Model the fold of this input.
Amino acid sequence: MLTEILARSGFEAQIFDCEHGAYDYGTLMADVGACERGGGVPFVRVSGRDKIEVQRCLDLGARGLLFPQLASADEVRAAALMMDYAPTGTRGFNPFVRAAGYGAPKDADRLRPPAWFVPIIETVTAVAEIDQIVIHPRVDLVYIGVYDLSAQLGVPGDMGSPALARLIDLVIDACRAAGKPVGMMALSAESAAALIARGVQVLVHGVEAHRLLQAGQAILEPLRSLSLGNEFVKPR
Done:
């Protein structure tokens, strides 16, 4: 329900997190469908480079996959192979899955545009090889994982770190040179404007759990000075 509401509110896409989230394939399929019903585009952040997991997420109808913790251009190339059928890739072919319309010819998966391949650049070693990564023809978007990068630099969560800013600029510059879009998280309109000015073209507007927390706090904060009277007793 929350997924469908977020899609109907106007978010163009949603990312379902199988790395940090609690998804199994049943709940993931429900959210992919809910996102589509609301008019959104479903993406999945896979937990790693497991070929079967990647295949199943694509079979469920994900329109793009984000791959975390890629450490090198070789790992990016290996992950890219999992996105496509033979002869260009290693994805198993089944024409009877959800993405293929369960066998309906007009909905065949092979007639849909290829799902986006999105490496998450969140390791220092990947940044060192970013020029090789962005020229891979299968890379559709590069997403910068700033929180993991900050941890690798020894400044976890410090988004103002000059060392982190230098790595971000290296990735953005490489993407611009290769003609590849780059994405980052923006938690406010001000940070979104700043990222756009730096050359970021895709914005992730936060994590739904954090946004719900913020919404609850915003509702309660102006009410804290009010009194309900001495007769009200909180339940134990």
Observations:
- The longest helix spans residues 162-178.
- The chain has one domain: 2-223.
